[in-house]
Amino acid sequence: MADKALKQALAAGTFVTAPGVFELISAMIADTMGFKALYVTGYGTVASHLGLPDAGLATYTDMLGRIATIVERTRTPVIADADTGYGGLLNVRHTVRGYEQAGVSAIQLEDQEFPKKCGHTPNRRVIPLKDMLQKIEVAVDSRRSDDFLIIARTDSRTSLGIDEAIRRGKAFAKAGADIVFVESPESEEEMQRVCEAIDAPLLANMVNGGRTPLLSAERLQSLGYAIGIHPAVGFLAMGAALKHAYADLAENGETTSAVELHDFSRFNELLGFPEVWEFEKRYARQEAANAAE
Asked: Which tens digit of pLDDT belongs to each residue from 112-153?
């Protein structure tokens, strides 16, 4: 079931900064950092699992399996990308129930046509507003607990303009979405307009290299946002680190001091090796005692 800590943080007016995680190493490291939530990014998860663009190619099963494992291996509330709900209204119901059963704390659903595209890339098209409102209604009706939050995202800014994006965001809040996500506003002024117009907790998407200005948590909160997700910081940092480390190895035939590596013993601790070793010692002692009898 959902971790109620995320809902409680929002109710208390605590700003939530959520780093993007996309597989277990990124999730388990971020889990130790004291964040109020982790954000399972669709872009990063599809890239790490399939090596493909975030273009509607991953299935519900692809995503749920990875999200469920991330939830299981971390203690921080998880916000998870669910694209368009992977189909029609029946698919939305199935997706909401599956994500909630997996222990996700907030599910993100968007108004793009299927198959969707990454929110900071071109050529996105959205479904009619009435169709998205039905998806929100189904999502709200399908959840088992109010602690499981529904995030409704509109991608209409890029193709239809900021006025339409705000109109949709207001309608999403009225339809029962717990959090409204207006994707890719293109200036701080547009972000301010979103916050002034929509009476609901708002989510800002801070994509490194994306269309929206990158603002601090303090500035986002002052504008009126409740959550700031940073979906790309993890996989872009990983990509840069791997490129540097592999280039160093290719050039020198060994890893030199130019490469910063995670301490191996601490990495073992992160993954739980000490528990494995203690288990092995315990049962090795029992086997020795049984052999001596």
From this structure: 987 666 656 666 789 999 999 999 999 999 999 999 999 999
39: part of which helix (H) or strand (E)? strand 38-40
Q: What are φ and ψ of residue 121, in 5° steps?
A: -120, 165
- Grouping H, G, I as helix, E, B as strand and the rest as coil, residue 75 is coil
Cα separation, 289 vs 293, in Å, equals 7
Q: What's the CA angle centered on 163, arms 154 and 186, to 5 degrees?
A: 70
Neighbours of 64 (CB within 10 A): 20
DSSP class of 53: -
Residue found under tokens 């409680």? 8
Q: Which two tokens stand for residue 24?
A: 């277990």
| Helix (H) or strand (E) run with residue 227 in it | strand 227-230
Query: What is the model's pTM?
Result: 0.93
User: pLDDT digit string (tens) for 3-24?
Assistant: 999 999 999 999 999 999 999 9
For the chain, give every domain's residue range. 5-238, 262-292
Q: Which fold has domain 5-238?
A: TIM Barrel (3.20.20)
Distance CA 243, CA 240 (A): 5
CB 31 within 8 A of CB 72: no
What confidence score (pLDDT) does residue 97 get? Answer: 98
Amino acid 132 reads: M
**Whether 111 contacts 127, CB under 8 Å:** yes
The per-residue pLDDT for range 225-253, each reduced to its tens digit, is 999 999 999 999 999 999 999 999 999 99
Q: What is the mean pLDDT of residues 25-48?
A: 96
* H-helix or E-strand spanning residue 113: none
